[in-house]
Every structure is written in C-alpha cells, then in structure tokens.
Design goal:
CATH superfamily of the largest domain: Hypothetical protein, domain 2
Distance between the termini: 61 Å
Strand content: 5-15%
Order of helices and strands: HHHHHHHHHHHHHEEEEHEEEHH
CATH architecture of the largest domain: Orthogonal Bundle
Length: 354
C-alpha cells in the first residue's frame, strides 16, 4: 500500500482494545520511558518487567542514575546483557544533571544528542512522554511496514529505516503521537510477529496489507544474514573455599568490559592443567570435579565452555586474594557483584553446592 493515512484510525482503534498493560505505560514519564526503551532492546517484554521495577525503585530519578556507583549500576542491570547500554545511560544522566537540571529536555534534537540514544529511542521518548510528532521505528515497525507495502528492501540498511521514518512522520496524528507509535510496535510484537506465521486473521490492517493480499507474508521482511560468529573455547573454574568463591574483574575495554566473572582459561584444559594453574596462584586444591559443558552466544562470539569445580584450602593467613582473582562470600556475590549470564551454568553450581 502507498497511502499510510489509511492505517491510522483502524490501528488506534485496535490499540485501544488490545494494548498490553505494562508498568512503563501506566506512568509514561520521560525517565521511565527512557529506561524501559533501553531495557527492551533485544530483550522480551515479560523478561524486562521485573528489571524495570527493580531499577526504578533503586534509582527513581535521573539524578540518582547519574550518582549511582558503577558496581551498583551494573548489578541492577545484571541479566539484561549489553552493559554498555546502562553505562551510556549514566553518561547521559550526568549530562542531563549538568545541562538540564536533571530533566529530559523537551526537544528531539537534544534528546538524540545524548549518549546511547538513537533515532528510535529519541522518537519514543519524544512521542510517548512529550506528545511530539516524531517516528519511533524499531524492528517491529520495520516488519509491519515491509509487509504492508510488500517491500523487499533490506530493513537493516539505514537508508531503508530513514525512508520508513519519513513515511511514518507524514501520518502521525498530532493528538495521539505516542499511542500511534506504540500501536505499530504493539502490532509487530503480538500480531505481525517476527518468528512463525503472522496472525493475519487478528490484524486490523489485514485488508490494507499488500503482502497479505499476495500471500507473501512469510517472505518479508528482507534483511542481510548475520555474519558467522567467532567460536572460542574456554575453561571456567568454580574455585571455592568454605562459603566463598573466586571472582575476577575483566579489563575495562572489550567484551564484558569491567564486569566480574568466574576465573577462566583460554582453550579446553584437562584436570592436570587446571590443578597446575590453581597451585600457581598459591592455592592448595583439596578436590576437583569436572562439570558439564556449557555454551553462551554473544552477538558476534560463541563461547564453548568446559568447567571444573575445585575446592581449595583457605590459606593460613586467611588472604584469599591472588594475582588473578579474589574470593567473595556467597551472599556478597549475590548482592554486590555483577556477573554476566554467560557464567550462569557454573554460578548455579556454586549456589546449589555451597
């Protein structure tokens, strides 16, 4: 279809009767919209709900976000992944405190200029929180529009996104800009779905959809296949002494920058190699147990993990700190340190056994 004005009325009518009840929609203040939109990037709505509630309770204002210690900030984000997103949020919060008295500016270009905010997030904040006529085109919207128009253009191309943003801008109703953007996103999330067959019989735009008319819904949208991930083998060590386990802080740059992790070695190591490494750290192993293999997929790297649990004696001086790692109590690990979900298979072993 070419005239997108035709979708406005039926889409808003459908949204009024089918919009999900979500915590950030109940009170769409700028800060709440911002936090929710960053969290929702590449994470399911149901998974985000408890994280959002916890984050807002702990850091209820932009000022609180700006002043939060990094360890606290990363712990609140633990499990969502992509930790640079919350680091950029804090950078933006500091700018908002310094330049805008801790408030989100009611100006699209100023919002867009903040660290970690692209055209979609800026459009979402501007339209939902402030009622501005600005498009918020995410993957859901790109999929809906590709099918509506039977477009075979690659939706991962910036030029295609900008084309759709321009089309949406022309039809956003001034009195319900935020609702209109959310209705397109909602339609893509629960009806014009990304995986499996779209629910065309439930779609308020089915009669307007060119892809549906020609029966090619499943062919769209088109996007460039992702590059092959790099495979890496590592050996993860669950080193325990009484009720403590070893942690290592990663370097401040690169994958999982600045986060805490279980000690690990490159490659798949055997028992003898692991025991040699442990002794080199000045520790005395009591017993070693091989753990089941695990796998974790990042956007561009895939980890294939072997694991060992090693019980070690506490040194006579009580100093459980080596050149490679330190030991933390179980309760402290749960409360204080942000440990990436990549290690969840082995963290579970520590939580259950000790």
């Amino acid at each position: 279809m070419k005239d997108l004005h035709k979708i406005v009325a039926p889409l808003l009518e459908w949204y009024d009767g089918h919009a999900r009840i979500l915590p950030w929609r109940e009170m769409p203040a700028p800060y709440r919209v911002w936090v929710s939109e960053i969290m929702l990037q590449q994470t399911r709505v149901e998974a985000v709900k408890p994280y959002f509630e916890r984050f807002i309770q702990a850091l209820p204002t932009i000022q609180d976000l700006a002043e939060a210690p990094e360890d606290k900030l990363l712990k609140l984000w633990e499990g969502l992944g992509y930790y640079n997103r919350v680091r950029n949020m804090q950078k933006a919060a500091k700018i908002l405190v310094e330049k805008y008295q801790g408030e989100m500016p009611q100006d699209y270009d100023s919002i867009l200029a903040l660290p970690g905010i692209g055209s979609y997030t800026a459009g979402a904040i501007a339209s939902i929180a402030f009622g501005m006529r600005r498009p918020a085109v995410d993957g859901n919207v790109l999929r809906v529009l590709s099918r509506l128009e039977k477009s075979y253009d690659d939706i991962l191309k910036q030029s295609v996104r900008k084309h759709f943003e321009k089309e949406i801008l022309e039809v956003i109703p001034g009195e319900r800009a935020g609702d209109f953007n959310q209705s397109l996103i909602e339609l893509g999330a629960i009806v014009c779905v990304p995986n499996g067959t779209p629910k065309c019989m439930e779609c308020p735009l089915a009669k307007l959809c060119a892809a549906h008319a020609d029966g090619v819904e499943l062919e769209l949208p088109k996007k460039t296949p992702p590059a092959r991930r790099k495979m890496e083998d590592i050996t993860v060590l669950v080193l325990v002494s009484d009720n403590k386990a070893a942690l290592h802080k990663r370097e401040e740059k690169g994958l999982l920058a600045g986060l805490y992790e279980l000690p690990n070695l490159k490659g798949h190591r055997n028992r003898e190699e692991v025991l040699t490494f442990v002794k080199e750290q000045g520790l005395s192993p009591i017993r070693i147990q091989e753990l089941p293999p695990a796998k974790h997929i990042f956007s561009h790297i895939e980890w294939h993990m072997a694991g060992y649990a090693v019980k070690v004696e506490e040194p006579q001086n009580g100093n459980l700190r080596t050149k490679e790692f330190f030991f933390a109590e179980k309760e402290e690990m749960e409360r204080k340190y942000s440990i990436p979900s990549a290690f969840s298979a082995y963290m579970r072993y520590f939580r259950e056994k000790y």
